[in-house]
Design brief:
The complex is a heterodimer of chains A (436) and B (299). With 436 residues, chain A is an alpha+beta fold. Chain A contains 13 helices and 22 strands. Chain A starts with a strand and ends with a helix. The model of chain A has no long low-confidence stretch (mean pLDDT 92). With 299 residues, chain B is an alpha/beta fold. In chain B, helix 1 runs parallel beside helix 2 and helix 5 runs parallel beside helix 6. The longest helix of chain B has 29 residues. The chains are: A alpha+beta (436), B alpha/beta (299). Chains A and B meet through strand 6, strand 7 and strand 12 of A and helix 2 of B.
């Protein structure tokens, strides 16, 4: 069966197995020389692909325990965040960390150690994991927590499924009074302005900026900052905890490649910037956190060839120089992106291959073609030279050298992998490409 | 054997279902105080019972609940707030699924063991239930391998018994009880394979054809007696049964689609449904091909 990540590049014929319970998963793991677990396929590149065996966790999606006093949840790895929120928000609980789509599995959130708009305060999702059950290459199920197999926990958080198959995860939700977010929008005319705004907004729970990546010269870095807080009942007396009912609309066809060109991109970016009205608004959590979830299969706007999302982080001291250099390179190439997002991360977490580290992260989308791949190689050099790294959950094309330069704890990860999986049973196209 | 006294799975009692409390949840804590240590199951005095109360008159019984389609149908009904009786050969394997259903939907879920091939066990099981369910759904099925079924009569018999004899007799017992009560819905998951015998799966197909005919007869017998019978022909479905087959995507339904179609058919009193409408067209064409032509095509 042809599988791909969310970027639809690469697309690979993969033998698929389905995990229904731990017993079945063990039989698959012991029966395969090479496999990788796959959740809902929302990582962008080839991290969830293995031609010989791709083990879908989507049928292991049971909610096993919920403590209404503490918000502690235990669930199977294939549970979708959207399903968890449908259960928890009406009960007054929200995810401690959420990525930009709710159609991810909890297991995938651990494996990619996802971050959200609250990273500067809450850290990554892995930070909130109390314990997990991991099926390792020898067929054993190991409980990993900070007081048991702590090394394996550090390698599994952000480990892209390379330590084993995550079976169950236990973590705590955060209490909310309403399902609404009080959002404030601010405009910044330049890169210095947006950096200053990000830094003075660090007291806000959620902050994220959208950048016009085609603006040049004095306007380079012009952006909109969105900051938000969970609305209290007093602030949003009319807001309910009920999930907003909304029909999902699908992109019906693959857009032709010609639809995306420097002019349409520039027009889109200018319009988007112009439409962003500074001010305060109450929005429901789906609109606030998951605007793109409202458009099903939005990845089709990049056409049949697929696209890649380029997300880098550059340590704070070098952020200004590094991000500016990346934006200038992109702008000069005329290769704009609908999505260009800037966010200031907080401190690095415990995951050995976890992406976030203190500094600015920039995210850009590009359709996949030769020009893009060449441009991204140039961006890699800029990022590495500024001490930065790339997000594995987005990556489909970088190299082992870039990986090694960006992740100083890589050898510690590889040593653990050698210990628990000496024959490299768990591998993906990405792990092969990056020598993981 | 079923053991209703078995310890309840580690779940905490869920508050009332969301649909019942559209406003802010009053019981939900709003301050982030210190988090108690200890497992989540510490608070697990299950108020959601592991057995069905006798007043659960809207209960749904699912035969073959361990299958992917059975699990999807169970979820869809639980989401409507309906209590469940799930039958499977090894009900212990359904404990986690049951825990999920109780937790998410706050419905009672009772697990009972039944080997549907053990025909003598049907009536005693139905008589032992706390309540005759409002809806009974048979999801049992066994595709088998046609070459094996053709070569080995014992294997063919197993396929025939599992797809026809056992579920038909079980639903027959149910029908008599529902007729006496004067109400109920019986739903049989049959197959498009029963619409015409084909070289590639005629043992399975013939059993499904028998099952389809049985359901049709039952429906006619019970019309006007308050009991409705639905025949479901899913077409290709992405399940354990079809794992490894290269099924065409536009013709292949997910188990959740089957569940949705079952729910809709139940609500609207439909008689015979195909899950994806395209299958009705395909099967009417396949049925219409004259036998002299059909036998030369290897379908």
């Amino acid at each position: 069966m042809k599988l791909s990540g969310w970027g639809r590049y690469p697309r690979v014929d993969c033998a698929r197995a389905v995990m229904r319970d731990a017993e079945g998963a063990r039989a698959t793991v012991l029966g395969q020389e090479s496999l990788i677990a796959r959740g809902n396929g929302r990582s962008y590149g080839d991290a969830s692909l293995n031609a010989r065996c791709t083990l879908s966790t989507l049928r292991s999606d049971r909610l096993l325990a919920f403590d209404p006093a503490s918000g502690r949840v235990t669930c199977e790895a294939g549970l979708l965040l959207s399903e968890l929120l449908a259960f928890s928000v009406p009960r007054g609980w929200f995810a401690p960390v959420t990525p930009g789509t709710r159609f991810v599995t909890i297991g995938g959130m651990v494996a990619a150690d996802v971050h959200g708009k609250n990273h500067h305060l809450a850290g990554t999702f892995g930070n909130h994991v109390e314990s997990l059950l991991l099926l390792t290459a020898d067929g054993a199920v190991r409980r990993c927590a900070r007081d048991e197999n702590a090394d394996l926990l550090r390698a599994t958080i952000g480990g892209m499924g390379l330590t084993g198959v995550i079976l169950e995860v236990t973590f705590c939700l955060i209490p909310v009074e309403t399902g609404a977010i009080r959002q404030e929008t601010l405009r910044a005319g330049s890169f210095d302005e947006i950096m200053a705004l990000c830094e003075e907004s660090e007291g806000w729970t959620y902050t994220v900026a959208w950048i016009d990546c085609l603006a040049r010269g004095k306007r380079l870095g012009r952006s909109l900052l969105y900051r938000g807080e969970h609305a209290t009942r007093a602030e949003a007396p009319d807001a309910t905890l009920a999930p907003p009912g909304r029909k999902l609309r699908n992109v019906p066809v693959d857009f032709p490649r010609i639809a995306l060109n420097p002019w349409s991109m520039r027009a889109f970016n200018a319009l988007y910037y112009g439409r962003g009205r500074p001010g305060t608004a109450l929005v429901d959590y789906v609109t606030y956190f998951y605007p793109l979830d409202a458009v099903g299969e939005w990845n089709r706007i990049y056409g049949r060839g697929g696209f890649t999302q380029y997300q880098c982080v550059i340590p704070k001291a070098a952020s200004r120089a590094g991000i500016t250099a990346v934006l200038e390179k992109v702008s000069a190439a005329g290769m704009g992106s609908f999505l260009a997002v800037l966010k200031l991360f907080g401190a690095e977490g415990e995951g050995l291959l976890s992406f976030p580290t203190e500094g600015y992260t920039l995210t850009l989308d590009f359709p996949v073609d030769t020009a893009t791949l060449n441009l991204l190689l140039e961006l890699d050099a800029i990022v590495a030279d500024h001490g930065g790294r790339l997000y594995l959950a987005k990556d489909s094309r970088t190299g082992a050298r870039m990986m090694r330069r960006g992740y100083p704890r890589l050898d510690e990860f590889l040593a653990l992998r050698e210990r628990y999986d000496p024959h490299r049973r768990f591998e993906s196209l990405q792990s092969q490409r990056l020598d993981l | 054997m079923s053991d209703p006294t078995a310890p309840a799975p580690a779940v905490s009692p869920p508050p009332p279902a969301p649909a019942a409390s559209p406003g802010p949840v009053s019981s939900g804590p709003v301050s982030s105080g210190p988090v108690p240590s200890g497992p989540a199951s510490a608070a697990a005095a299950a108020t959601v019972p592991a057995t069905l109360p006798a007043e659960a008159t809207n209960a749904v019984l699912i035969l073959g609940a361990a299958s992917d389609i059975g699990a999807a149908i169970a979820r869809a009904h639980a989401a409507e707030g309906r209590p469940l009786i799930l039958l499977a050969r090894q009900p212990a394997r359904l404990e986690r699924e049951a825990a999920d259903l109780r937790l998410r939907h706050g419905v009672a879920v009772q697990l009972l063991p039944l080997d549907v091939l053990d025909l003598a066990a049907h009536a005693p099981l139905l008589d032992s239930l706390p309540v005759l369910p409002a809806t009974v759904i048979s999801v049992v099925g066994l595709l088998g391998e046609q070459p094996r079924s053709a070569a080995d009569p014992a294997e063919a018999e197993r396929v025939m018994r599992t797809n026809y004899l056992a579920p038909a007799l079980f639903l027959g017992e149910v029908a008599n009880r529902m007729e006496a009560r004067g109400s109920g819905t019986i739903i049989g998951i049959s197959s498009v394979a029963g619409d015409r015998g084909r070289a590639s799966n005629y043992v399975y197909g013939s059993a499904k054809a028998g099952f389809t005919a049985f359901l049709s007869g039952l429906r006619n017998r019970l019309a006007g007696k308050g009991v409705h019978v639905v025949t479901v022909k899913p077409g290709f479905v992405d399940t354990q049964m079809t794992a490894g087959m290269n099924l065409p995507k536009p013709l292949t339904a997910q188990p959740e689609e089957v569940a949705k179609a079952v729910l809709a058919a139940e609500a609207r009193g439909r008689d015979v449904i195909y899950v994806r409408p395209v299958w009705r067209v395909i099967m009417s064409i396949i049925r219409g091909i004259p036998e002299p032509v059909f036998k030369r095509r290897n379908l």
